[in-house]
Design goal:
This protein is an alpha/beta fold. It is 34% helix and 19% strand. Residues 21-260 form the AB hydrolase-1 domain.
């Protein structure tokens, strides 16, 4: 499916019917990563219209000349939501990594219609060199299988996944290694140089008074977790899941926990929704 936003054809797909849930992938990623992680949640949970998009310069969406920094990327995503969901309709939003950074902006916007958000290992500090990062210490559940992998694959997989077994290797191949070249490097590098971080902290001076589900990995050596914990006072209705044996690819490292906790949170959100 395509939706033209600011002269740019945005590639996206929809699954299911009901309450819109917009899913946003991470930096250099694509919508496949979010479909793989979220669709198991909805296997037995009807009533949600899942909308997965590719951000500008990533996946099947070309660069957008009007998007040169993250503030403009956020405005672009909001324009996409207005077009596809409706300008007045409420929606849920989910995002991984940089997608979670955008979710922070969506939830904190003054005129936000977001009724709740799922933040999966979101960016807290946009300056990579200043992040507080724990070491990635993998739990190798199947050492013979991992050792038998070709060395280049073993090193790439081992540097990204905290729980190493046949399942996580297959997921890594499909969701990460298999889509690693689906982005415009020049375009994204320019954004990193000129404006990867928001001009102003989204939560500054604000209370984000909507339900939120926050997943953090204790072994997340990409964005870390400590700095996101410092932002929790801005989210008084947040549910926090800080998982051991989970890195930046938490939904691959701990798939059962991710699916079960997300489904439980959504069911509680449904029960609270009529009273809001």
């Amino acid at each position: 499916m395509k939706a033209e936003i600011w002269g740019t054809p945005v590639a996206y797909e929809e699954r299911g019917e009901g309450m819109p849930l917009v899913a946003i992938h991470g930096w250099t990623g694509c919508r496949l990563q979010m479909t793989e992680r979220l669709e198991p949640v909805f296997a037995d949970l009807p009533g949600y219209r899942r909308i997965y998009l590719d951000l500008p310069g990533m996946g099947e969406t070309p660069p957008c000349a009007r998007v040169q920094n993250t503030d403009e990327m956020l405005a672009f995503v909001r324009a996409f939501i207005d077009r596809v969901v409706g300008e007045k309709a409420p929606y849920l939003v989910a995002g991984h990594s940089y997608g979670g950074y955008l979710v922070r902006g969506l939830l904190a916007a003054e005129d936000s219609r977001a009724a709740g958000g799922i933040l999966l290992c979101p960016v807290a500090n946009p300056v990579h060199a200043q992040r507080i990062l724990p070491p990635l210490v993998p739990l190798v559940e199947e050492p013979a299988f991992v050792q038998a992998l070709p060395q280049p694959e073993r090193e790439a997989y081992g540097g990204a996944i905290a729980v190493q077994n046949r399942y996580s290797y297959a997921a890594w191949q499909r969701e990460i290694d298999g889509v690693k070249d689906r982005f415009d490097a020049g375009y994204l590098d320019a954004i990193v140089r000129t404006g990867y971080g928001y001009a102003r902290l989204p939560e500054e001076g604000k209370i984000v008074d909507v339900p939120a589900l926050l997943f953090l990995g204790r072994q997340d050596d990409v964005v870390g977790y400590e700095e996101m914990l410092e932002l929790l006072p801005h989210y008084p209705r947040a549910t926090l899941a800080l998982l051991e044996h989970a890195g930046h690819q938490l939904a691959i490292d701990q798939p059962e926990a991710f699916v079960a906790m997300t489904r439980c949170w959504l069911k509680k959100w449904e029960s609270e929704r009529p009273r809001q």
